[in-house]
Design goal:
Length: 100
């Protein structure tokens, strides 16, 4: 079974690493600021590149035909923007057991 890393676990990991002598409150504030910067940047339509990790990209989806799964009725889905993530080659290698 896969485990999902939560924001509170990230905060605890930062605080435990203690390389920066962060209190739990300071670690939480740092994570919140980072996430807010990423959200604000994506909301403005810009991409976010984190070297060695990957790139969050804003993509536009055109209007398309869809179907209501409950009724089976056809409908048109409005154009929208979505966020995609493409991992770096370094991260891909690490996931596949190649590299640090």
């Amino acid at each position: 079974m896969n485990h999902t890393l939560t924001k509170s676990e990230i905060v605890a990991s930062i605080q435990k690493a203690n390389r920066f002598a962060f209190t739990t409150g300071k670690a939480k504030e740092t994570v919140e600021i980072l996430i807010e910067i990423i959200k604000r940047t994506l909301a403005s339509g810009e991409n976010v590149l984190v070297s060695g990790f990957g790139k969050f990209c804003v993509q536009s989806k055109r209007e398309r035909r869809g179907r209501n799964p409950a009724t089976g009725d056809a409908l048109m889905l409005a154009p929208r923007k979505v966020v995609t993530f493409k991992c770096s080659g370094r991260l891909r290698g690490r996931i596949n057991g190649k590299g640090k």
